[in-house]
Write a structure and sequence with these properties.
single chain; 244 residues; alpha/beta; 6-stranded mixed beta sheet; 4-stranded antiparallel beta sheet; 9 helices; 10 strands; globular
């Protein structure tokens, strides 16, 4: 479980994150939505300890990220906005390298490696250098690398960005599998179709603040809209109007 409590982060006079708080629970997929510049990526970077908050608290499975960031990193599997593969290495070598960094023994690595390769349907690219990979192939490799240590909490930043229809469908199935295994899945997306199909709960951020934290059905009921995209637009429009 990931708990976010009153996070603040400013860059000079700009308040990128201004009191964000929410909970992403085990066995659920939580969507993090917001317009460009809303503070989503800054929030995620603080969650996976790439950036320190000015104030507030991040707890992952009860561990305070400010007190023990290394322990938090061990409980997280992260697909960041920058995929960051080593282009001269094959997909297999990228995954195995990160397994070694996590201290995973050979037998455990083989078991987890095989399970991820099958789940992500990436056996055909395993022994190719990642340089020249398609966007979908890069994402599959980056996800396998992020999950090789079997984390209970998974953070995915725009996981389907640039993917074709088939790759997107495969990734959605994989995210559902993570949920069914009882993991906590938090993902950021601009694509309302996948948010509607996947999310148990939706957190909407605008101007650095949480402006909605509800189930999809509750968001639609709250706004009087039957379409989730229309509900999102109404919530963001109301927030922008109040700020004007």
């Amino acid at each position: 479980m990931i708990e976010v409590r009153d996070l603040h982060k400013a860059f000079g006079a700009v308040k990128a994150v201004d009191g964000v708080g929410f909970t992403a629970r085990d066995g659920e997929i939580t969507g993090l939505l917001g317009p460009n510049g809303a503070g989503k990526t800054t929030t995620l970077r603080m969650l996976y300890t790439l950036m320190e908050p000015d104030s507030g608290q991040v707890l992952v499975d009860g561990i305070d990220a400010a007190v023990d960031p290394l322990a938090v990193r061990r409980t997280l599997g992260v697909l960041p906005d920058a995929r960051g593969l080593y282009k001269r290495l094959t997909a297999r070598e990228n995954i195995e390298y990160f397994a070694r960094l996590q201290g995973i023994d050979g037998a455990t690595l083989r078991t987890r490696h095989e399970a991820l390769v099958d789940a992500l349907e990436m056996r055909d690219i395993l022994d190719r250098r990642t340089e020249g990979f398609s966007q979908g192939q890069r994402v599959k490799t980056a996800i396998a690398r992020a999950l090789i240590h079997d984390p209970r909490n998974v953070i995915l930043d725009e996981p389907t960005n640039g993917l074709d229809v088939m790759a997107t469908r495969g990734l959605r199935r994989f995210m559902q599998q993570l949920k069914d295994e009882g993991r906590c899945v938090l993902f950021s997306s601009h694509i309302m179709q996948e948010v509607a199909a996947l999310c148990d709960r939706i957190v909407v951020i605008a101007r650095g603040r949480v402006v909605a934290d509800e189930t999809p059905d509750a968001l639609r009921a709250q706004t009087g809209e039957t379409n989730l995209e229309d509900a999102f637009v109404k919530i963001i429009g109301s927030e922008e109007g109040l700020a004007a």
